[in-house]
Amino acid sequence: MTVVFPLVGFAAIGIYLIVQGVGIGAGTIPVIGYVDEVGGFSDYTTQGDLTFLPFDTQQEATSALLTGKIDEYFVIPEDYLLTGAIPRFSLEKELEVPANIQSAMVSFLQSNLLEGQTTPEIAARVKSPMLLSNIRLDESGNIAQDQGGVEAFLVPMIFGFLLVMSIGASSGYLLQGLGEEKENRIMEVLLSSVSPRQLLTGKILGLGAAGLVQVVIWLASVIILARLASNVVGGVLAGLQIPGNMLFLGIVYFILGYLFFAVIEAGMGAIGANAKESQQMVVALVLPAVLPFYIFIIFLRDNPNNVVGTILTLIPVTAPMSVFIRLGLSEIPLWELLVSIGLMIAGIVGGIFLAAKAFRVFLLMYGKTPSPREIVRYLREG
Amino acid sequence: MPFVEVNHVSKTYGDRAVVNDVSFDVGEGEILGLIGPNGAGKTTTIRIMMDLIRPDSGEVKILGKRLDEAAKSSIGYLPEERGLYLNMTVTESLIYLASLKGMEVHRATTRTDELLARVDLLPHKQKKIKELSRGMGQFVQFLVTIIHEPRVVILDEPFANLDPVNTQLIKDMVLELRNRGRAIVLSTHRMNDIEELCDRILMIDEGYTVLYGDLAEIKARYRNNSVLLEYEGDLGEVNGVVRRQDHNGRTELFLDSETMPQQVLSQLLQRGVTVSRFEVATPPLNDIFLQVVGRD
Prior knowledge:
The complex is a heterodimer. By secondary structure, chain A is mainly alpha-helical. Chain A folds into two domains: about 30-125, 3-Layer(aba) Sandwich (D-Maltodextrin-Binding Protein, domain 2); about 150-380, no CATH class. Chain A has helices at about 5-25, 60-65, 80-85, 100-115, 120-125, 150-185, 185-190, 195-230, 245-270, 275-300, 305-315, 320-330, 335-360, 370-380; strands spanning about 30-35, 45, 50-55, 70-75, 90. In chain A, helix 8 crosses helix 13. In chain B, the strands form three sheets. Chain B has a six-stranded mixed β-sheet with strand order 6-7-8-3-9-10, with helices on both faces. In chain B, strands 2-1-4-5 form a four-stranded antiparallel β-sheet, covered by helices on one side. In chain B, strands 12-13-11-14 form a four-stranded antiparallel β-sheet, with helices on one face. By secondary structure, chain B is of the alpha/beta class. The chains are: A mainly alpha, B alpha/beta. The interface of A and B includes residues 181, 185, 192 and 364 of A.
């Protein structure tokens, strides 16, 4: 998993480059025919790499298509000015018209329509009326460091993604390990040497260290991939921004979230009769961790500081993902962050206490997973 | 100072008392046999001693101190539920589990070789646990229990699933440990092993102590006032003998409460009976067990 994720990313970029390379290769730039039934569409026949070749009739264009002289053609019908309809003919089975061809056709039609109707400058603006840039000011009226937007949203999302991936991977290791130790009956031998709390702490820290290595590898991969992707793809990734406070809070909540869920997983691992049953319980408890993603994106995108958003930020289970998403959408009040971090730390400490109790009570029980009522009873008696 | 002191320990689950006011101690160079029927509370008592289960009341002291994490390294524990990491080799298992008891790796490595040589497992030291036979695996588990040279050894059913040869080897090692001053608690269902190895016994039933003390004294207490005899000649009527019973070439003479065994022997010798064996009969522990727990 640690290596697979970066490999998949690099492979994706490689595939993209290969596909692009195939598209750019010689002989692959399509020659586009057209039949002008309106008249007057004779200029601007070169649009970027594409060339538009006129034909007098549709039969001639079809023949040229079938003999491979052109790759496709379109017709500008007599009633085009009324309807805007343009039928396009090709031999390929396509999901949709390739964006570069569609854009070249629009430019070709616009240029010919505006030819002689206005100045070249106005014609150019009609074709590209605005290049919008959005600038956010801070409270003192200066340009804010964090400009928001999709680019700013990416970094918190990366933290959220890493947290969920790490929880998933660590739960796999932790539950598999605990399951094996229960099934091999070695737990009693271990507990005769160390206390349940030492065993729990050791497992969480051991897995934490392994998880940290994993996250460092992933983060490094993300940075390299983002650079590569922005060079190759451009667009959103080129504007990737990582403000310092966002990075700091991201790391704080990642560590707190990781510890909180690791403690929950350890407790579940102790209670479950085997790794499979423990995994089912963990899923039920960890599912709320990703809930804020959907709530914020669907319901609270325009008003993330809503009271629901605040509550989600304060509850330890939902706090990490809520903070990650809100960091990308708005500012989070300081008091919310402080209370949220305090509650998460309290949750971790309380979780360690309960999980240690679960280790003491349930690790020596074999055979079946206790019911929720039994869990409460045994924990009380233990 | 006893090495192990268990004082008035009780544990209840729901409304069921699993261990009820159990007290005992084990001294230096002593083996205490812990016996009782299934579900009597033996394993719970042992787990309380190991701090795996917290008692509702009472306390456990090891080497004079309340049991804490540091004191655990003074104890070697062979649980009834055996377990090792199946993908570790024999050597790795012993060194890793010894290091958990605070033993330095260098010392643990040396000790591993010593112990494996002692039980002829040295050729198997690089085998994975899952590649061992069940008996070999159990041996490794026993070695894990004693590798760190604990002063207190707790063995829960150490002879289960072992053949007679391996059973004897472990018995010899247990006796060696006793002779080197270790305090040993031995829990087993095999009464003959208890008779062979233990100095004192604790019998519990349904969580209560039903017998506790010196094994010889307990056997004397349950004696039937009878003698076992192997002889040649005519026995005839013997004064003070109320009943006689023949079994396996031996005759057991049951005496009335007034008659001493020496008086019976004098009568027989005066009659010219050739006595090749004469011993005061003591009941086997198994009979005492059945009698006490009411299954007889």
